[in-house]
UniProtKB/TrEMBL annotation:
The lineage of its organism: Bacteria, Pseudomonadati, Pseudomonadota, Alphaproteobacteria, Sphingomonadales. InterPro entries: DgoD-like (IPR034593), Dipeptide_epimerase (IPR034603), Enolase-like_C_sf (IPR036849), Enolase-like_N (IPR029017), Enolase_C-like (IPR029065), Mandelate_racemase_C (IPR013342), Mandelate_racemase_N_dom (IPR013341). Gene3D superfamilies: Enolase-like C-terminal domain (3.20.20.120), Enolase-like, N-terminal domain (3.30.390.10). It comes from the Bacteria. This is Dipeptide epimerase. Keywords: Isomerase, Magnesium, Metal-binding. Residues 130-222 form the Mandelate racemase/muconate lactonizing enzyme C-terminal domain.
Length: 327
């Protein structure tokens, strides 16, 4: 018979991680372990704070369904048993992991994905003054060929210009974190063209996506908060060129596989992203990222430390953990 264990772990952030909504100096992750008597599967998730989740509420959600999981609920049934979110993600990941170890068939094969290989992840520059962001970009550029800038609305053009000065050869993507809701999105995007920005994430508040109906952005727009799982795709069509898939939002790899397939069938491009997390948290997303247009799995890089069996990061190159920590 299965046994489910759940716990909260606290991991310090390297410095502070700052976005338009605030700063974090620690991140609490929820770890779920499922054992079948011989094998142990693990999953990790980070609460979606803008949905009102906390590590404690996620842990409580897991405990509420632990009996059903122990009785044999599978990944398909989990989609209807629980809502999307971090709790379902942690359980889904642990189920994939224990099934892979029990069967001897790795997750990527069970999921119909390619064998994992090295990928290039973005490295995130926290929101700050242009001077500080230029310094951060100059320090990061020798290691990270793809930089992601956190923006806040007022002063964003100066921030991007400063980062470009600090990292003249880096690829740049920006995350407005909904801060352009009351701004002229098309004009803001046009102002960033000279700096070679190749993607703009979530310019307007989720639920205000209709504001993009008349926007002809010269830079592709990517839905993040506006696209959690498959039901959200309908209001993204024609407004966004891409979606940022995060397993904590979607509620696990099982849902994310379908979300990616439907988005691509509709002609949308895909970014694979993450919350602040350890390597265990990004392991399922790493499999999904093998053919993504943009990859933003730097969660472990933004912490003071990582799990001993975590990924090997060579600058922006993310290499599979050996031996595999998951799946």
């Amino acid at each position: 018979m299965r046994k489910v264990d759940v716990r909260i772990e606290r991991w310090p952030v390297a410095g502070a991680f700052t976005i338009a909504r605030g700063a974090k100096t620690v991140v609490d992750v929820v770890v779920v372990e499922i054992t079948d008597g011989m094998h142990r599967g693990r999953g990790e998730s980070t609460a979606i704070y803008y949905h009102g989740e906390s590590a404690e509420s996620v842990e409580a959600q897991v405990r509420a369904v632990a009996g059903s999981i122990e009785a044999g609920v599978d990944r398909a049934a989990l989609l209807s048993l629980m809502p999307r979110g971090a709790a379902r993600n942690a359980i889904d990941a642990a189920l994939w992991d224990v099934q892979a170890k029990t069967s001897g068939i790795p997750v990527y094969r069970r999921a119909g994905l390619d064998a994992p290989a090295a990928v290039t992840t973005a490295f995130t520059l926290s929101l700050d003054t242009p001077v500080v962001m230029e310094q951060a970009a100059r320090a990061a550029a020798p290691l990270y060929p793809l930089l992601k800038l956190k923006l806040a609305g007022e002063g964003d053009r100066d921030r991007v210009a400063a980062v470009r000065r600090g990292a003249p050869d880096a690829r740049l993507i920006v995350d407005a974190n909904e801060s352009w809701t009351d701004r002229d999105v098309q004009a803001e995007a046009a102002a960033l063209v000279p700096y070679g920005v190749e993607l703009i994430e979530q310019p307007v508040r989720a639920g205000s996506d209709h504001l993009l109906d008349t926007v002809a952005s010269p830079i592709p727009l990517c839905a993040d908060e506006s696209c959690q799982d498959r039901p959200d795709l309908a209001h993204c069509f024609g407004r966004y060129d891409a979606i940022n898939v995060k397993l904590d939002k979607a509620g696990g790899l099982t849902e994310a596989l379908e979300l990616v397939a439907e988005a691509r069938a509709a002609g949308m491009r895909v970014m694979i992203g993450c919350m602040l997390s350890t390597s265990l948290g990004v392991a399922p997303a790493f499999l999904l990222a093998q053919h993504a247009t943009w990859i933003d799995l730097d969660g472990p890089l933004l912490l003071q430390g990582d799990r001993e069996d975590g990924f090997d990061f060579n600058g922006g190159t993310m290499l599979p953990a050996t031996p595999a920590l998951w799946g």
